[in-house]
Design a protein that fits this description.
Elements: H1 3-12, E1 18-22, H2 29-43, E2 48-53, E3 71-72, H3 77-86, E4 89-93, H4 105-108, E5 115-119, E6 130-133, H5 140-150, H6 159-172, H7 183-194, H8 201-207, H9 212-224, E7 226-228, E8 233-238, H10 240-245, H11 258-261, E9 268-275, E10 280-287, H12 293-301, E11 304-305, E12 309-314, H13 318-329
Helix pairs in contact: 2-5, 2-6, 5-6, 6-7
Bound molecules: guanosine-5'-monophosphate and manganese (II) ion (MN).
Guanosine-5'-monophosphate binds near residues 24, 303, 304, 305 and 311.
Length: about 325
């Protein structure tokens, strides 16, 4: 982060403000962790922070400190629009293009209040007065740790803030396995554990706490999986009927895409999940090594993300979407 940007943020935060904090639509552990960490930090300085999430967060993150105070735009558009319009300052965390907030973009785009973006995705849009964007970080939560430290306020990071930061680092690094996990990541985590962050309980709350439905959905996705070994590709699908039959709750499909990569010889994995309400197929892509799924998602499925983890969507039917994907797979070289 540039020194003049740090000073500008320090200046903005000298007087108490109404501050809206926005995660991306479909908030994951990193989006929730970074927004909640910043929320708890700003509370210490008598600001009035409010997290406005474009839509509901998954059940498996409901235990996070402060989650119960998050406003959900989709559930209460009038009230949330007022909050956004009255904000003096707006943080957008863990995304870098306003369309990642879905319908909320229409409210955000015309706002006059300054935006501060903190994010680790590629190709940031140019909407923020202050942009702290760095793709070398494995998570926005690790950036929030740095952000608070750069403001000279590292001593404010307590167990609550640490719990939020730890959660995002853990989830976005695939439990410290993905390539952007560095010595610094582990040093930060070590400090958080010293602050009392529950490093055995949190993974358990996140990963060992699901209903039977989630396992059945995983079973269905594994049944549906197709391999294209000559293109080092595995993909699977879940349609709405399958999800309904196992009493799907939000979050149940999180992480399933990674199973494809656990197969020997597979370097590219995808999952296609039907969302009948939104009339879209939501897609997740993962890769190991050099194949750039961010580019693949941008070029073909209206999406983006990182080199090894990206997502996108399709408004075609599941069958048409898969046909298109199959066609593309025959052309890629991995
Ligand atoms: P996931 O597959 O877990 O939903 O997302 C993987 C990564 O891709 C995340 O970093 C997420 O922010 C990004 N991503 C997921 N869906 C989209 C999308 O529709 N558009 C863009 N630009 N990025 C996405
Ligand atoms: Mn992230």
């Amino acid at each position: 982060m540039k020194i003049q940007d740090i000073q500008a943020v320090q200046l903005l935060l000298t007087t108490p403000k109404k501050i809206a904090i926005i995660p991306h639509r479909g908030p994951d552990g990193d989006a929730m962790g970074s927004t909640l960490a910043l929320y708890h930090f700003l509370l210490k300085y008598n600001h009035e922070p409010i997290i406005v999430s474009p839509n509901e967060f998954p059940d498996f993150l409901a235990w996070m400190p402060g989650a119960q105070n998050i406003k959900i735009f989709e559930k209460d558009k009038l009230n949330c629009t007022t909050i956004l319009e009255e904000a003096d300052l707006i943080f957008t965390l863990d995304f870098n293009a306003l369309h990642r907030t879905g319908e909320m973009e229409k409210v955000l785009a015309p706002l006059k209040a300054p935006f501060i973006m903190i994010d680790h995705h590629q190709k940031p849009d140019d909407y923020a007065a202050i942009t702290y964007s760095d793709t070398s970080f494995g998570s926005t939560c690790e950036m929030i740790y740095n952000f608070i430290s750069l403001l000279g306020k590292k001593q404010d990071i307590d167990k609550t803030i640490g719990t939020c930061i730890y959660t995002g680092i853990l989830t976005d690094s695939g439990s410290f396995r993905f390539p952007k996990t560095t010595g610094d990541t582990h040093r930060i985590v070590a400090e958080l554990i010293d602050l009392g962050v529950e490093n055995t309980e949190i993974p358990s709350l996140l990963f060992d706490n699901s209903g039977f439905g989630r396992l059945q959905i995983l079973g269905q996705a594994l049944q549906n999986m197709k391999l294209r070994m000559e293109h080092k590709t595995a993909y699977t699908t879940l349609n709405q009927d399958e999800l309904n039959s196992f009493n799907y709750v939000k979050g149940d499909t999180e992480g399933i895409v990674n199973y494809g990569l656990s197969i020997k010889g597979i370097q590219f994995a995808a999952i296609f999940i039907e969302n009948a309400d939104e009339k879209i197929i939501k897609i997740s892509f993962r890769s190991q090594g050099d194949f750039d799924v961010n580019q693949f998602a941008r070029d073909n499925f209206n999406g983006g993300g990182h080199r090894n983890a990206a997502g996108g969507k399709s408004v075609d039917s599941m069958q048409e979407t898969i046909q298109k994907f199959e066609g593309l797979v025959t052309k890629i070289s991995i």
